Amino acid sequence: MQRLTNKRILLGITGGIAAYKSAELTRAYKAAGADVRVVMTPAAREFITPLTLQALSGNPVHTALLDPEAEAGMGHIELAKWADLIVVAPASADFIARLESGMANDLLSTLCLASDAPLCLAPAMNQAMWRSTATQGNVFQLLQNKVTFWGPDSGEQACGDVGPGRMLEPNAIAELSATMFDKQLLSGKIVHITAGPTREPIDPVRYISNHSSGKMGYALAQAAQEAGANVKLISGPVNLECPDRVSRIKVESAEQMLAAVLDDIANCDIFIGCAAVADYRPAVIENNKMKKGSSDTLSLALVKNPDIIATVGQLPDKPFTLGFAAETQNVVEYARTKLASKNLDMIAANDVSNSDIGFNSDENALTLISQNSELKLAQTSKTKLAQQLIEHIAEQLTSA
Ligand code: C5P
Prior knowledge:
Layout: E1 8-13, H1 21-31, E2 35-40, H2 50-57, H3 68-73, H4 76-82, E3 85-91, H5 93-100, H6 107-114, E4 119-123, H7 127-131, H8 133-144, E5 148-149, E6 153-156, E7 162-166, H9 170-179, E8 190-195, E9 200-203, E10 206-208, H10 215-226, E11 230-235, E12 247-250, H11 254-263, E13 270-273, E14 280-282, E15 302-304, H12 308-313, E16 320-327, H13 331-341, E17 346-351, E18 363-370, E19 373-381, H14 382-399
Parallel strand pairs: 1-2, 1-3, 3-4, 4-5, 8-11, 8-13, 11-12, 13-16, 16-17
Antiparallel strand pairs: 6-7, 9-10, 14-15, 17-18, 18-19
Bound molecules: cytidine-5'-monophosphate.
């Protein structure tokens, strides 16, 4: 997998001869799968044109704080929230000083002040400027404020001096940027999740389905994405927006869901079966709308659907597999039986006889069961529960 897939990097460029290397850095980010937005200070534009960075990043370049047109596209606060990581390369002595004093007198310094994203600086300047008491004082203070410094390197400088102040090479900065995400719980993992109901057609206008809202599966997709995973959501028909940066495949029937699941299961690290798959489907799908007959009863022959998660559980190189068990009685006992019969690594059991939780509700409570552990997750929102579930999966994966 590309190490920066789906990651949003805001690349700040300040004025210095090393700004030409930022073009190469933008390419390296794109090659690693990142979405890059470039912000340039006025001084940076003396060294490299916004057009170059726009062509390489594939996004408009942001240059001015008070530009109504740019603000109408993506405003500065939106941009600050958008970023997963802010990298300023090159970072000039002037920019470092302004950052340290909390100034917000251009777009880049304002963004750094307004964003919660980690901030990393790759300084580049003359060796005497880098060594000066003022710059070193600013760097010391920024380090206390959890700003990360990458470099500078030592060596020959554009001005002819020799010493510390050269910007790190673009590939080294890209590599360090990727390591910033390694701390995430599911960093680099590929997660596939099924969600929602399936629809089993009877004729062109009718189907058999169930009340699954898809909320739990969608919350899990979002939580896994936020934990750094690359997430594919294989979803039956639901009324939910696809979570940001999750790729969704829409399916209807169980057979379609199975085909989508098996399509690239070989690449999957974690499989979560959250869909309420119909156990049976009509044996025959009528080509035309069925007519009302004279009889008061109608019999429909049904055949068993494939068990999607059990199919995944039987694969020789199966991913870590988590299933769900919605039960109305003997919840834990039945869930344990399913854990074994479907060859799962973990099962999340919920008691659907309690109408406050489960189908269609915004809340849920679960008992997480694996071969030698059992853990109760108390009733809370599906969003919070999904985050807890992802944490437990990550724990199991690291302890395996
Ligand atoms: O057997 P039961 O339907 O209770 O099992 C529930 C678990 O199995 C859930 O994880 C569900 O997504 C999965 N399942 C499946 N394919 C089926 C039936 C259930 O993947 N045909």
